Amino acid sequence: MHLRPATLLTVLLTLASAVLAAPAGRPNLVAIVTDDLGRWAIGPYDNKEVHTPHLDRIAREGATFTRAFTNTPVCSPSRATYLSGLYPTEVKITDWINPDEAKAGLGLAAQTWPAVLQKSGYRTALIGKWHLGEQPQFHPTKLGFDHFMGFLNGGARTMDAPLERDGKEQPTKGPIADVITDDAIAFVQANRDRPFSLSLHFREPHLPYGPVAAVDSAHYKDLDPTIPNLPGLDVAQVKQATKAYYASISSVDRNVGRLLQALDELGLAQNTLLVFTSDHGYNEGRHYVKTKGNAQWIAGGVAGPTRGNMWDTSIMIPLLMRWPGKIEPGRKIDTMVSNVDFFRTYLGALGVQVPADARARGADFSNALRGAAAPPSGSGSVVFGQYDLHNASLAYMRMIRTDRYKLVRFFHANNMDELYDLQADPDELQNLARGPRAAELAAVRKDLQARLEVWMKSINDPLLTDPY
Q1: H-helix or E-strand spanning residue 68
Q2: Which of 76, 163, 251, 301 could form a disulfide with 234 if both were Cys (CB 3.0 to 4.6 A apart)?
Q3: pTM given for the model
């Protein structure tokens, strides 16, 4: 067959355009972050009562991390660490950013992994929750995102929420989870021919849990949910809250399913690393508290003062990763990792060079995704954490968690430190910092405290020099 010169030129231009649109078949990233999702509350972590078939599919087709953590158990500092690879005191965001702080100009000012991807040719988007500053200099489009649709503050209605689109707040109709997923699917469709990084940040299952779409709440109409068996807990109240919590989670799952379907239909699943996680854990009655690291005591249906904590229920997060052909289906990865590791891990997984001037801490655990026989180079056998609670209560907490022990230091406070033997007491019900075993574990505590102080010095933690 002989092509006329004009036809040949058209073919060549089309091929050249395709090559430029998808340079070297670089992989895509879809990173889904939920808000307030305890890992105990989804199917991949053995919850048989919640309806999460699409999350179950991701786990079945990819990897489930059994020991993933956040370094801070509330949203703004956790999200700042997730994006920057720096600890909360390093970015000066140590509790959730309240409206007065946002108005005064508090926000994330650091290099982010989306900014690195953006500079290397990726089209980037943040759709959904931000909560890392509301002043213009902290807008997502100033920190590495080409496209933003969502809300800048800490919360939005579950239905008919006003959301920023194209730089202006606009009304929307329907469940917010559906609305932001619509935009996420549109972004994927528009960028199917070039490498993209999509960050989809749901506000669910944050309080208030509803209303949600009827299709999501219908799963729990007749459910009698299992709740913690704790004397004095208001069983009816906690069961009702748990059912509403599960319905909110199912609204996320249904929309994750829509996004998975879009990736399949566009032929993008094979070349896309898909990640599902949460900014921190959750309790819903565990330890006699509601919510997370700034939990409220509940007993007899009455909420008490805020109580700062770093229990595993607050700091352990769900983490699922799927990449067909790269990640062996059904893998369980037991290595301890934390959200400070995501900066280097995402870049490592996508084959993007970490900038020479990057301050990001943490490590790249992407070799675990490829089935490395040796332990990956992530957090490994220890996780550190910090939380300076100053909204509604006051606490300065620093944590070290190893395979067996957890020490939580409460600075500027007396007799509040916590020490747990996680092997003997995985539910952290017995604080061994005081009582009959305190003397027996004195050497263990001393070692943990020394290691904690070495880490605090390495990040120039202000608690080491702050005279209060």
Answers
A1: strand 68-69
A2: 301
A3: 0.93
